[in-house]
Amino acid sequence: MRLISTTRAQDGVELGRDVMIGRPDGVPLLRAGVRLTNRYRDLLVKAGVSAIYVEDELSEGILVEPVVDDMTRAIATRAVSSAFKTARDAMSSGKRLAPDTVEALEDVVRRILEQIEGSGGVALALADLSSADGYTFQHSIDVTAVGLMIGHRYFTSQGWTDFRGERHYDQVEERLSTLGLGLLLHDIGKLAIPLGILNKPGKLTPEEWTIMKSHPRAGVDMLDGSQWSPLIKSVVLRHHERWNGSGYPDAKAGAEIHPMARIAAVADVYDAITSERLYAPARPAADGVRAIIEGNGTLFDPEVVDAFCRVVAPFPAGTSVELQDGRKGIVVSVPDGALDRPVVRILEGEGARTEISLLHDPGIRISGWDHVSPPSPVAA
């Protein structure tokens, strides 16, 4: 299986994974196994789906294992859609959202955590193949998946600090469950933003940007006071704060931002860059990883960036790459501990192909990639 541009897909090629379009019931636009036709390709392009996974001869035997499988994604889409509808109805009637109204989200978090544990905690495929119209729900799901992977690595290596300042390494599952709920709801405040601003294709005016920046506080205001964990509310309120104090809504910096919100910040930015949006096309995973690395120590907590770089691959299996010597290939697999040094299947003439390990051939590098991942460990 490999990821290709929708417009370059040939007639008859088999779709490798479901394509979502943001339907609240979680039903995909096209299901895996469908053979592509001109009509289907035009449908995908019209829906704003710029890339698809396909099964073909070039990618035969390449296994792409998404962090969130199609069944879990469908269940999660329905649960997140229901939660947002409940929140919208509550807001319309002047009420707040109570935890017992979104209990299905706890099951979603549990399912995603099980899949993360089954994958060894490393994200080898995150692309959700969603249209721009499906961004709201799919972004919540993918930010949760990325955030939980970061959180799992972070809490395992760094532990967590209680209100007395004491560090602990137990109760990690409970911390992750709380983090997951906060991540699923992190953008719920956007329900209070006018659609004309939320979906504007161009640059926001200063006045519109001020309104947009109100969504974290609006999100906390939707949650029913003391019924919600303060940690969940921290994720909702602080996921746009930045390590150097340049974020919003309150320009908090460093330790003023709860670690869960620092994790959410990294997951949110990475997924925003790599997802289809109404005002910006999806960019490759490597671009998302590069943005996080470049923000290390300024926009983002170095310890969180370290955890991120150890679980998110810049070149997932099925990704097309070009080596510095001009050869083109497809990523076959990614070694744990050296996520930017994958095994690459070189595409040669007459259908011939060989596979090389960049980990075992340090002189071979991927064109345009100069980072070393993961970075040097930071002190605990």
How are the SSEs placed, and which strands pair?
Layout: E1 2-5, E2 14-15, H1 38-46, E3 51-55, H2 70-92, H3 104-118, H4 135-158, E4 160-161, E5 167-168, H5 172-184, H6 195-198, H7 206-212, H8 215-222, H9 230-238, H10 259-274, H11 285-294, H12 302-309, E6 320-322, E7 328-333, E8 343-347, E9 353-357
Antiparallel strand pairs: 1-3, 2-3, 4-5, 6-7, 7-8, 8-9
Helix pairs in contact: 2-3, 2-4, 3-4, 3-5, 4-5, 4-10, 4-12, 5-9, 8-9, 9-10, 10-11
- Given as residue ranges, the uncertain stretches (5+ residues, pLDDT < 50) are 374-380
CATH architecture of the largest domain: Orthogonal Bundle
What's the alpha carbon Rg, rounded to whole Å? Answer: 21 Å
Provide the residue-averaged pLDDT. 88
Please give the count of helices. Answer: 12
**Largest sheet composition:** 4 strands, antiparallel
Shape: globular
Query: By CATH's scheme, which homologous superfamily of the largest domain applies?
Result: Hypothetical protein af1432
Q: Name the strands of the widest sheet in spatial order.
A: 6-7-8-9
The assigned structural class equals: alpha+beta
Q: Which range best describes the helical content: under 10%, 10-25%, 25-40%, 40-55%, 55-70% or over 70%?
A: 25-40%
Order of helices and strands: EEHEHHHEEHHHHHHHHEEEE
Strand content: 5-15%
**CATH topology annotation of the largest domain:** Hypothetical protein af1432
Task: Give the number of domains.
Answer: 2
Number of strands: 9
- Between the first and last Cα atoms, what is the distance in angstroms? 39 Å
Write down the CATH class of the largest domain: Mainly Alpha
